[in-house]
Amino acid sequence: MIFRLAFLILTLFPLITGCGGNAGKKNLKIAVVPKGKTHIFWKSVRAGAMKAAHEHKINILWESPEKESDRQTQIQIVQGFISQNVDALVLAPLDSRSLVPVVKSVNRREIPVIIFDSDLASEDYVSFVATNNYRGGGLCAEIMAEKLEEKGRVAILRFLEGSASTTNREQGFLDRMRQIAPEVNIVSSDRYAGATFEEAVKAAEQLLTDFPKLKGVYTPNETTTYAMLEALKKTGKTGTIKFVGFDSNDSITPALEAGHIDALALQDPFQMGYEAVIAAIKTANGEEVDRRIETRIAIATHENLSSPDVQTLLHPDIDKWLKTEKPK
After folding, report:
1. More confident residue, 280 or 21
2. Which listed CATH number (3.40.50.300, 3.40.50.2300, 3.75.10.10, 2.40.37.20) goes with 21-131+269-294?
3. pLDDT tens digits for 310-327?
């Protein structure tokens, strides 16, 4: 009798617990809060998030500020998702410090937090999904030093104060350049572009005006790269100044093909969005995830432009997933 009872328990237990605990919760609501919505980078992140949502049949709630400088709106968005009692929050903090208090509030509600793209000055999250931004900046310094033959005047157009991802790219560039090419003179490293494209173009034009003998410029994200490209065109300096940037879009890629940009550090925002949502799903289902999940980075040049790896990063298949998105 005892044997038969034990046999029944062992037979029925997987059915009672949901196939041995692997089925997970149904109808999960995962909130995703990026830094913005206009750049191709965030559209790629959204497409990756939707791929994960479709594969696992969960609901994605997506909302972002209009401008990538609007910290208060991002805080309000997160607070709104707290009140909706979402199962997990996936957040790209606009500011490494100003978002700390609201993330603490999320934790008090026992809602797991996945941070992506840009770090948070706190330990109150489960996992961080991002490019190794410091290493990416270093790779940009290496290609710049090679193009300049390790000498000349170089300027950096920074993005925004408080943005951890771009700050790491900027510092990585500076540190690596000092290590490998001490004769390269960094004549400006304290200019900030601002959150909008218009502000960034003005800042880029002013930088080129203030330092007419530049041999190289470095930009740490899509906004600054596109703005510097426009400023170089307006001043007639495309192709005369070595230009290494981060990220791409449909206007930046042709400039790389034409030789107006010497190199681009390419991230994988599609994979970043996918991995961040997968980590949120696993955490909401009680599974363990890695504390740090690193997505790939590649340096694109005119010489390797046609390689499959570079082409995948330049032209992610985002329409397939954004077209299938259902309003939430």
Report:
1. 280
2. 3.40.50.2300
3. 999 998 888 888 876 654
| Contact between residue 156 and residue 188 where contact means Cβ atoms under 8 Å apart | yes
Strands, DSSP E only, in the chain? 29-33, 59-62, 88-91, 113-116, 127-131, 152-158, 184-192, 216-219, 242-246, 263-266, 292-295, 298-301
**pLDDT 10s digits, 116-144:** 999 999 999 999 999 999 999 999 999 99
Q: What is the 3-state secondary structure (H, E, C) of 102-114?
A: HHHHHHHCCCCEE
Please choose, from the candidates 243, 300, 224, the residue with its C-alpha nearest in 3D space to the C-alpha of residue 266: 300
- Cα separation, 61 vs 90, in Å, equals 10
Superfamily of domain 133-266: Response regulator (3.40.50.2300)
Structure tokens at 262: 């010497």
Encoded tokens for 267: 């991230």
Supply the angle between the helices 71-83 and 100-108 in degrees, to the nearest 10: 0
Amino acid identity of 152? G
| pLDDT at residue 26, rounded to an integer | 62
pLDDT (tens digit per residue) in 217-256: 999 999 999 999 999 999 999 999 999 999 999 999 999 9
Q: How confident is the model at residue 13 (pLDDT cuts 50, 70, 90)?
A: very low
Beta-bridge partner residues of 132: none
- Output the average pLDDT for the chain: 91
Q: What is the pLDDT of residue 316?
A: 84
DSSP string, 215-242: SEEEE-SHHHHHHHHHHHHHTT-TTTSE
State how far the Cα of 220 lies from the Cα of 209, in Å rounded to an integer.
Answer: 20
